[in-house]
């Protein structure tokens, strides 16, 4: 299944969907002002995408791109559809878009004692994680 990908523009439906998720998914100390993110996405180096399964909003990604690499600054999946593979689908679409460029995604550190199992998570992108 391929998700519909829509560039987020000011005051569109995607604008409001992404804003709600962005404000709920990231604590204030980890986020930039939403207006500034979208303003920056008017430049060619940054893009904010909303992802939809049919009409249902499933998540978003904010990407910064150079000639050498693609960096995912923010990625979040709508809470109502988490653990259904949408995060992996979004990452796969971004990976395809990036082509041969390295794709960089930072994640929160795994806390000591937290078990991360690639097979259980169903996420093929977790293979590079060091959980020791």
TrEMBL record:
Segments traversing the membrane: none
InterPro entries per record: Acyl_CoA_acyltransferase (IPR016181), GNAT_dom (IPR000182)
Pfam families found in the cross-reference section: Acetyltransf_1
UniProt superkingdom: Bacteria
CDD domains assigned to the protein according to its UniProt record, in alphabetical order: NAT_SF
Gene Ontology MF terms in the entry: acyltransferase activity, transferring groups other than amino-acyl groups
Domain N-acetyltransferase: 1-131
Official protein name in the record: N-acetyltransferase domain-containing protein
